[in-house]
Amino acid sequence: MTGMLRGIRLLFLSFLAVAALGQSVETVNGVRLVHNGKEGQWGKKPRVQVELVRTLGDVAAEEEAVAFYMPAGIALDSQGNLYILDTGNHRVQKFGPDGRYLASFGRQGQGPGDFSYPDSIDIDSEDMVWISDPNNQRIQVLTPAGAERKTIGFVKERVGKVRRTKSGLVMAGGGGVFFGGPGLEEKEQPPPKLFKKLDLEGKVTGEYGEPFDFEHPLLNQMGNQVTFAVDESGCVYLAHLYQNRLEKYSPEGKLLWRADRKLDYSTDPPKDKGKREASGGGLTIRMPRMNQCAEGIAVDRSGRVWVVTLNRQTREEEQVGVNMSMTMNGGERKMSMKAQGNTDLRTTDMYKLEVFSSEGELLGSLPLDHFVDGIYIKGDRLFLWDAMRGAKFFQYRIKES
After folding, report:
1. 130 and 124 in contact (C-beta within 8 Å)?
2. Cα R_g (the chain), whole angstroms
3. In total, how many domains does the chain have?
4. pLDDT tens for each residue of 102-145
5. Per-residue confidence band for 188, with pLDDT thresholds at 50, 70 and 90
6. Residue 391 lies in a domain
7. Distance between CA atoms of 94 and 58, rounded to whole angstroms?
8. Residue 7 lies in a domain
């Protein structure tokens, strides 16, 4: 009896400690729901730190090999070599573990090994390089030297960001330029599932993740955008860009937990739902202005979940965007994308790294002083990149306190 009372007392004290942090946990229909406060379990003393090791690249670099333009991702092979997806230059840049330039492959086009603003990059256990090339409606698999190993073409599916797992592929979102057909704004179309699992030939084997129905096509298209990561066991982690919502799914696609955290701004749907107008053979789309709360997600080797979170919304002088155009000449399509806005800024207090436990509990956060468009973790190496302004990668080392 004494042991039971002691156990109850410890459980009660644990509950009080969690409540003091503003965290609460409940289970609904077998799913763990975690409501995090603003302060994490670490309080003012984070148990991990990130130490800057080096930076790589700059949009204004004199050396052409590191003059990136709108880069979209990075991946490491088994030897520690870095492969940077230099999207705006339609190429992959390969560097050694020490940052030394090794090789370049790719150019703009539609042939084998060509790209048209590629969207994501990943590397499998055999060091094959998997690249999502949505504007060419395909995934390309290349050798470490850039030679074509395999191409997976898609006709009905919109190719999104792709991650390689031990058994297949995970794809989320629809990449590339998509304007839809006439009358899109008037039609009531239920939003699609959040991510798909595919076999190694590109066949869809399952669709998972429940979207939120904003009851408007443009709000659905923007409000259900996610970024995601896959751990070594095949679990999928989603961070919603415009919803205060983080999720973990089993390798079979079962929702294991959902978490939120206290933010200093609202993520409620805006009154302005955006607009889509067709006139004179042209099409203009003005997307709704929604508050963004996340920019990237990654999982470290300890199972902790790292999320690039916004402290606040972008100020007018910080705003950047992409001007897209497309022309058709006979059967050949020509696309161009150009960054616009205040691309001269390099520093900001807008972002932080939030660290969550493998069960969705907020542990703590680390401040950042630069713009961030994505995150990647391999071992103790953490990479962040600024795609739209400096076109630069920041390599950090994760240090346990």
Report:
1. yes
2. 22
3. 1
4. 999 999 999 999 999 999 999 999 999 999 999 999 999 999 99
5. low
6. yes
7. 15
8. no
pLDDT in tens, 147-163: 999 999 998 888 999 99
With respect to residue 12, please indicate whether it lies within any of the assigned structural domains.
no
Task: Return the HEC string of the chain.
Answer: CHHHHHHHHHHHHHHHHHHHCCCEEEEECCEEEEEECCCCCCCCCCCEEEEEEEEECCCCCCCHHHCCCCCCEEEECCCCCEEEEEHHHCEEEEECCCCCEEEEECCECCCCCCECCCCEEEECCCCCEEEEEHHHCEEEEECCCCCEEEEEECCCCCCCEEEECCCCEEEECCCCCCCCCCCCCCCCCCCCCCEEEECCCCCEEEEECCCCCCCCHHHHHHHCCEEEEECCCCCEEEEECCCCCEEEECCCCCEEEEEEECCCCCCCCCCCCCEEEEECCEEEEECCCCCCCEEEEEECCCCCEEEEEECCCCCHHHCEEEEEEEEEECCEEEEEEEEEECCCCCECCCEEEEEECCCCCEEEEEECCECCCEEEEECCEEEEEECCCCCEEEEEEEEEC
Mean pLDDT of 263-289: 84
More confident residue, 200 or 185: 200
Q: What pLDDT score was predicted for residue 335?
A: 79
By residue range, what is the domain housing residue 160?
18-400
Residue 380: which CATH number?
2.120.10.30
Backbone phi, then psi, for 295, in 5-degree steps?
-130, -15
Q: Is the pLDDT of residue 184 over 60?
A: no
Indicate if the pLDDT at residue 8 is higher than 60. no
Residue 2 lies in a domain: no
- pLDDT 10s digits, 284-314: 778 899 999 999 999 999 999 999 999 999 9
